[in-house]
Amino acid sequence: MTKVELFGAFVDIGAEREGLVHISNLRRERVNRVEDVVAPGQAVQVWISKVDAASGRIELTMIRPVQLKWADIKPGLRTTGTVVKLEKFGAFVDIGAERPGLVHVSEMSNDYVTNPAQVAKEGDSVAVTVLDIDRTKRQIRLTMKQAPEIVEVEPEAAEEAIPSAMEFALRRALEGSPAEPAEAPAPKAAASKPAAPKAKANRSTQEDILARTLRHRIK
Question: Strands (DSSP E) along the chain, which ranges?
């Protein structure tokens, strides 16, 4: 910045002539005095808006050109912006649209915030997400909150099926070791008669069928 006038400021951009930033192009908000925004010797970022080759006049602007059109701004859009203004109720962040978006104080952090200055200051670069947009009123609501991380939980290994008492007994019998009785054996009768040969044969056949059935099930 080389010189400040009532109508704007002159900037040396390395060309043959200095460029002029009109007072209306110092920032998007209304400016009453040029001195409220810039001062001689200050380094500023400018963009060329118009060049008049005949008169050699170069018109500059300090308002960053629109990078996001209204049609491109949608809820869920994640981008980076610059904090341009702090208020008690939140912060205005320039994301490259025609107007800065508002981050309400309740959306500035996952933790409770009472003063926006606790989280950010003017000139800070912050990551924001678009919450909502009102194209009629030209309003953009933003959030600086971070989405909670999604933790993938691996399914637990399936528990091995516990065999029933009868299956356990037959399994032990097939392996050649005696099975532990599930219940205490009933007291023997004082004098028991030997089973008839036919009854022994039927019992042996039933046990053999049961053993083969359970052996197939265990496999």
Answer: 3-4, 8-11, 19-22, 47-52, 57-61, 78-87, 90-94, 101-104, 125-134, 139-143
